[in-house]
Amino acid sequence: MKIEKFEMMRMQCLYEREVEFNLSETTVPPLRLSELLDDVDDVERFISNELYYPESEGSELLRERIAQFYMDCKPENITVTNGGSEANYVTLWTLLEPDGRLACMIPNYMQAWGLGRAYADGVDAFQLVMQKEAGQYRWTLDLEGLKRAVTPKTNVILITNPNNPTGAVLTSAEMDAVVDVARKAGAWLVVDEVYRGAEIQGGTTPSFWGRYEKVIITSALSKAFGLGGLRTGWVAAPPKLIEEFRIRFDYLTCTPSLLSDRLGTIVMEPQRRESILARARQIIRKNLPPVEEWFLKRDDIFTYVRPEAGAFVYCEYKLPINSTELVNRLRVEQSVLLTAGDQHGLDKGIRTGFGYGIEKTLKGLARVEALMRSLK
To answer: Of 29, 115, 130, 231, which residue is the least packed, with the fewest Cβ within 10 Å?
Structure first.
């Protein structure tokens, strides 16, 4: 089996600690371990854990608390993974077939795109498209494009909601339309909801869970929760499919980390969970306005679309340079790391994270502008 290089992830792994301004990150500053362990008794209980192999599917209490994040979900619908990437990997490894095809939302975090090209007969794209509504741009689902992408060979449809890199959130009508297309095709609908809980306005984005009997949700404590170092993810799916996933986990990491399982159980206690998500939203809502103002004042270079969730902005630009070439030049010449539009299935665009401190973000963006204006 030939696997393509995951361009965006390889770039971040190589360079995110080598640059002065890493604006490729899409989350908020992480919580400290001391912030999860409230008192001396908590600390003592945690450090007294014996480091044995934990439950392969995740502890009963962690799975119960993850299930509470969804309507009418039960622990038997949940299996715990080592991060959201493993959740996506095992799900697609299980479902994709050599003679089947994946219909994949673009733009996206392109893990599914690479796996679809490796494990299935191929990938068919459908897009979020930029449209102007009431004087403002927003990203909307190209429903006709989705219908064209789903063929008799399609057995999996992949959605990311909220979307990475645009921060778009599907409307209720768009969610219903996606489910309708999946149901008519009899396809599995896999929805990566890792940014659910990191909304710019309002409460937590409605989940796809429960809208269709063949829905699978993947998520993790990395993005909206700001706890990527725990490497705790999960899949929510019908119990029979959960068993299929676990068979494959036996060939991979076998179990989640015991310490991450115990910390994840603390995080997903409902009151604590909502407190952590509220923290993320507070940071995002504080940091976005100055970043938004920065891009809007430079409309001779950028087309700004306000994200609806996530600590990142995706902007198209009006310059005659490929986005990967631009990002590489910014890294080498300005010591700024962004992600490129064509690393997300588009081009002529850049994704900028803003969750890690507004002063540093704006200083990095000043360097971005300096190079980009030299190209005009």
So the answer is: 29
